[in-house]
Write a structure and sequence with these properties.
alpha+beta; Heat Shock Protein 90; 28 strands; 22% strand
Amino acid sequence: MSMQEKDQVRQNQDYQDYSAGSIQVLEGLEAVRKRPAMYIGDVSEKGLHHLVNEVIDNSIDEALAGYAKSIDIIINEDNSITITDDGRGIPVDYHEKEGRSALEVVMTVLHAGGKFNKDSYKVSGGLHGVGVSCVNALSEYLKAEIHRDGKIYYQEYRKGKPVSDIQEVGPTDKTGSTITFMPDQEIFAVKEFNYETLASRLRELAFLNKGIQLSIIDKRELEENGNGGDYRHNTFFSEEGLKEFIEFLDATREKIIQNTIHVETTKNDIPVEIALQYNNAYSENVHSYVNNINTIEGGTHLAGFKRGLTRTLKNYAEKSGLTAKLNFSISGDDFREGLTAIISVKIQDPQFEGQTKTKLGNTEVVGAVDQATSELLSNYLEENPKDAKNIVTKVITAAQARHAARKAREMVQRKNAMNGSGLPGKLADCSSKDPESTEIFLVEGDSAGGTAKQGRDRRFQAILPLKGKILNVEKAMRSKIFENDEIKNIFTALGVTIGTEEDSKELNLSKLRYNKIIIMCDADVDGSHIETLIMTFFFRYMTELVQMGYLYIATPPLYQIRKGKQIRYCWNEEERAQVVEELGKGKESNVSIQRYKGLGEMTSEQLWETTMNPENRKLRQVTIESAAETDRIFSMLMGDDVLPRREFIQTHAKYANIDA
């Protein structure tokens, strides 16, 4: 039989085999367990914490409907989570259509719940998510305790399936729901919940939903205090909502207007809340929310805000005569330099789009937010002429700086064109030109850069040494940033361009040369500072790269432990103690321990094996869980106010691999 005849027989067989029996139907929550990333994004740290947010969303919905005042989260000793609210309690009565209790329907059927009935919830943050049924499906166990109608009801589930029918277990004088779940260890790559991640989200929710108390307790960890010790905990409550949120974000910035501008109103039947403040910084920090969801890609509500802000300020500036001497136009970006603003809308039927489904698409929201913004600003500017002048002066300065920055960029581009490829002289490029398979290391110092060049895999790894500490972009004007040699080298090496005259902050990624950008610094205080400076630059000027998951931090080992011919590397104190116990039988006089203070102390082979080899290395991906919280932290770390920075470092020092 010829090869062609064999192929024909194989194709006929494949055709016959592909029948109705080939179509797999996943019942109930089986689809969630089989393809979890389709429902929660991923099975790493982000997906793990998404489970908690799904349960909290239900409790927040009860609060938005006026039935709950407090929500409590406990991280239990075994890393399970308990979430309790004082709402009405999930219904437990018999569901005629499904033939079982309403609680079981909510816990086991996708897209089931009261939020799909407009009579139950006017707005719902949970609509953006996938529901508590997915949490149930991805948990080793889930326990539901419902306080309702004077009775306590209980039901337990294992991997999404009920262990027994719902049971009445006692009387109660309270109402509400308590959900305890343990994420399935077989599904999630990351097993431990991060206290800071959860606490940050609760703080955000407290600001977005004033009058609701949210608390968190971590029963895994005791913190020392005057009484001897207590579980790590926090309680969040806001009386003034977004006004307090702005003041929290701008706590370390120098304000240029007296008061936070704030309004809470309803336009075209859409509840709109806006708060804003101007400061002397050079960055724009505008955060938008829809039904408590952080819309990091913006959308129609953000478009309405920008339109209302630009039009109103431009009209006032022209009438005041302060812009008469400018010989170039003011762009929308200029009106937002030094602006910290939060826009929050509540919509009954939000339509999301965009790459990460965090972009609002409802067209009716544009006019509502535009109108609310315009009225808010017009009134404030008329009533506060001194503040109005400060804002307009700031806008003019921003326009002048943008004009200078554009000239600086044009000079850099002309210089690159004259140099042929335009790549920095320090760059040791890789041979592959495919961005999906290549990576670039931004290395602290020429010495370590030289070692990295010798140890790398030239096929896919590029090295760009950085001289000393790069410019602190948090405290520099845009024109100075584009004049800085190290920052120019980063832009040029990556193949990224930024800005045009019309839109000075637009990032052009069409010629991006690497899809993995790795910051590699010494494992000491100076190295951590340089890492923070570089991350600040990426957060402020290349946010899209961070959001796309392209930015990483290399983690060189802290110790080399040697006994005879045996060599082991350790990345933290726990590993060090474990290796000493294993090789030295618990005694450091039995082994040789080298503490690496810098990358330059390693040979090229050691650097490759521990920090650069994809098979062995430990990379930390830089992500933005909360844009507002990230904005606040970078502002505080890179600002002039020493006290909050010192408090932050003291609080987090035990979670970082840096020297005291």
